[in-house]
Amino acid sequence: MTEPLRMPATLATKKGAGYLADQAGERTVILTNHGRETAVVMSPEHYDELVRALRTAADRLVSGVADLVADRSEFRSIDDARARLHALR
């Protein structure tokens, strides 16, 4: 994707929602107020792409953590657990 367009919010207001939507269809638009970023406008396709990427990353993270927990977990019988608890006394 191309470099985001930075635009003062006042200019975006003057140019209108149609202009802003056209620009967002081509590239992400970052609205600013006194030089500070205040809003981001992007196409629905780009937004969906970001959401999918975030969900994929979250799924991979959860899966990785689950694998780590499973690798470190030990399943014991009740008798074994009882014996270990008595040995700690």
Automatic annotation (TrEMBL):
* Domain of life from the UniProt record: Bacteria
Database matches in InterPro entries: YefM-like_sf (IPR036165)
Per its UniProt record, what SUPFAM superfamilies does this chain match? YefM-like
Q: Which family does it belong to?
A: Belongs to the phD/YefM antitoxin family.
Q: Which NCBIfam families match?
A: phd_fam
Which protein, by its recorded name, is this? Uncharacterized protein
**Organism name:** Acidipropionibacterium virtanenii
Q: What is the lineage of its organism?
A: Bacteria, Bacillati, Actinomycetota, Actinomycetes, Propionibacteriales
